[in-house]
Every structure is written in structure tokens, then in C-alpha cells.
Amino acid sequence: MGRRDDAWPRRWWLWCAWCAWCGLALLSPGPAQAHLVAGGQGAIRLVGDSAYAAISVPARALAGYDDDRDGRISRAEIDAHRDALGMQLSVMIDLRSGGRRGRVVFEDLLLPHAEPGAPGAEELTVLRRYQWDAPVTAPSVELHLFHTPATADARLALRVIAGERSELALLSRQRNAHQYFAGPWAVFRDFAAAGAGHILLGPDHLLFLLTVLAAGAGWRYWLAVVTSFTVAHSVTLALSALGYVGAPPRVVEPLIAASIVLLALDNLRRGAGAARHRPALVFACGLLHGLGIATALVDMGLSGDNRALSLLGFNLGVELGQLAFVACALGLLALARRASPAPWRAGAPRAGSAVAALVGCYWLAERVA
């Protein structure tokens, strides 16, 4: 029996290391899409007194176009409602130079695919040229694309390019305006907020952490596993954001769900004995989670003039969000232990691990399908 227990951690370590290696071995991202701009992204190039914009706008942010009531926008619907759509977009997209609104001197509305007879799309690409009476200075943007319940959780990564300089901002309902080229601190702050929001809104990462924390008790164990997870996902986050490694979400996301199942089953199999070998397992799985976390940053892109600062800010935001969650989770676990009868204290971690395994299995099946 003892030999079986000794072999168990080695087999699980090899399994987790293999999972991590599968993710890291997929170094090339998926094929590029034939889109003018990807969904949830946009770019504005400043040239003299003009700004040339290409912005992806969710169709569900617009009204009065959906003649066939399919929730998508087609080329025929654009042609039939072009003037009304243009008026809505003028209200939704407010681009300024030195506090003054620009004049729209050119506009076109396109679908993200150009094939004839293609079906309607969930977003359209807005092409515009804004002009002022003087060269553009202190560019700022305010978006009103997130006003409907259907777009409340939408985000837009909008990059402004001026000569050799470029800066990217992540805009949402909570933060729908940005002053570009306001300094490195603004870039750092925005990416830190995006990192914290990503980890705190990522249920799979949080469930993984909770499963790890529940396997043992004591500050030495908690410090070891949290440090292992932090170091591991920071490594793959940085490598992926800088383009050294990459893996498609269709591979990484199922493996992240599998890591939850593995850790939960390990809790059920060995109980408190799982704590001894847990830092190594958490490190291996953390490499996968880093690739998953990096997806949000890769979708945004690093700020051109402040690449290192934007990467540092995003990673710091992830760590602060993780630290806040760990502190709350440990506090709640301590309160639960004190308030629970003694017989329940031994069974609660196993019950929690069983629930985590079931949820992880559901996510795994869903993501594989």
C-alpha cells in the first residue's frame, strides 16, 4: 500500500507536466482571420489634422436595422439603414483633439468578411476620417457602445497610432473614455485594472485556487502553493504576451478544466497527504493557467511605447486580484472551520473537492465539445 501511495504523486506529476508541455509545444497561433479589424478591437491613426479610424462595433449596440430579426447585421441591412446607422455611430463614438470634437468627412460601414453572399455578422467595421482645423493634439475618445444590457459586458481594445508612437486602451461600460499619450502611469493603471478584472472574473482560475487552498492548512503550505502558482503563470503569461510561445484557446481551456479535475481528485485520493507534493503539481498546472490568462493580454496587445510597463501592469493586476481572492478565501475558510461542528470539519474539504471535480468535468466536456 505504501508503494502505491509513493508512486501516486510521481504519476500525477508526470501527467501534469505532460499537460503543460502540450500547451507550450503549440508555439504557433491559429490561422489569421480575413478581417479588417478583429471583433472587440479598433485602431485610429493620426496624420496631421486628421484621424483615420477602423473600429469594430457590436451589432447589438445598434437599433432599427434588424429587418429579419436574426440578431445579426447583413450588407443589405447596412445599405437600407446607412444614414440612420451613421447618426447612431456619431453619438456612440466621440473622438476629440484638445477637447474639440472632430468633423466626420468620410464614413463607410463594412462587414468583417468580404465574401459575396456571406451571412450577417455580429459586428460591423466602421471606417471614418475625422478632421480638425489644426494638427491633432492630446487625442481622447469616449465610447457609448455599452449602454444596452446586451453590450454591458462588451469590451473594446482601441489603439491610437501617431507616427512612431502608439498606445492601447481597453474600454468598457465601467471605463468608456481614455486620454491617449497621457504618460506611462495611465498605461500602467489601465493594464493593471484589466489584469485584476480578468483574474477576478475568471471562474476556472478561482476554482483552481480554491481547490488548492482547501487541500491543506497552515501558512507554510498556503505560501508555497500560491507562490508556485504565481511564478508559473507569470512565466507563461510573459512568454505568450511577448510572442515566444502561443497556444490556441481550444487547447488551453480544456486543459485548464482538466487541471481542476486533477487537483480535486488528488484531494479526494490522498486527503491531507496531498499537501506534501502539491507545490510541484500546482507549478505544472500554473504553466497552463498562464497561457489562459495571457489570452486576454494577447487579444488586447501590448501598448506600443510602453510594452514592458503594460506587461508589468497586467501581471501585477493579476497578482493583486489573486491575492485579494486568496485573502478572502482563507478568511472564509477559517470562519467556516470555527463555526462548523468537529465532524463536519473533516468532511467539508472532501465535499468541496467533489463539487470542484464535478464542475471541472462539466467545463472539460463543454470546452472539448
Keywords:
Hydrogenase/urease accessory protein HupE, single chain, six-stranded mixed β-sheet, disordered N terminus, 2 domains, transmembrane helix, 10 strands, about 375 residues, 10 helices, alpha+beta, four-stranded antiparallel β-sheet
Written overview of the protein:
This protein has helices spanning 2-25, 75-80, 82-92, 184-200, 203-213, 219-241, 249-270, 274-300, 307-339, 342-368, and strands at residues 41-47, 50-58, 93-97, 100-101, 103-110, 123-131, 139-143, 155-162, 165-172, 177-179. The two termini are 38 Å apart. The protein has ten helices and ten strands. The strands form two sheets. It has a six-stranded mixed beta sheet. The protein folds into two domains: 2-32 and 197-368, no CATH class; 41-182, no CATH class. The model is unreliable at 1-35 (pLDDT under 50). It is α+β, with helices and mostly antiparallel strands and 369 residues long. Residues 1-34 form the signal peptide. This is Hydrogenase/urease accessory protein HupE.
